[in-house]
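Sequence in, structure out.
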Amino acid sequence: MEMEENRKKVLRLRQITDKDRATSLKARESWQILTIMAEFIESTERLSELRPAVSIFGSARFKPEDPYYLKCVDVARRLSDAGFAVISGGGPGIMEAANKGAFEGKSPSIGLNIELPHEQTSNTWQNISISFRHFFARKVAFVKYADAYVVFPGGFGTLDELSEALTLIQTGKTRRMPIILVGTVFWRGLLGWLRDTMLAAGAINEKDLNLIQLIDEPANIVDAIFAYYEARDIEPSEDERQKMLYL
């Protein structure tokens, strides 16, 4: 009874007395849901049979002469020639480097582009280009259609994608896959903090740290992905496919 008395009163949409406002709100929200569905449908239609694939992340701000940009082109080209489609965010910087390397290789170069008020402009090195307005729909595509993550130095967006993948694997919402960080000097501080602060506080387990590999040499990155899938089929199992339906 006390809970009932203390329950806050929140109007439902159909209880709003201003009918014009209620209709406008409903129409706007309904249309928004349809645009979200459309993004999921398009990515599924165009990427569901595109395997094996590797998602590559990193800063949009690195220029073509930057050592990380040049290394990313090399990594993406090696992956592409080895039979992996390469998925990037479709923008400049590391995303452009990933698409460029893949475009010059034997396998498809995919850009999952996002509409942003600044920074993000689509690069020209894409065999398949998909545009998103919603970050979360785009993030699902990055994880769902990838067999490995290669993460170059970057900013908040790169950390967001990295932590998203780690969380989904840690919680069993998606299958385990190689997550490779490139740039020992750049990532050393973060890895130290994960070990010395998060692990020490009991916020993560020792096995969670084993989800991450730190590799700088391009050839070794490709070898590490192949080594992981020597022990299992690169295709998701039926159980894993079911899990990924609920990312």
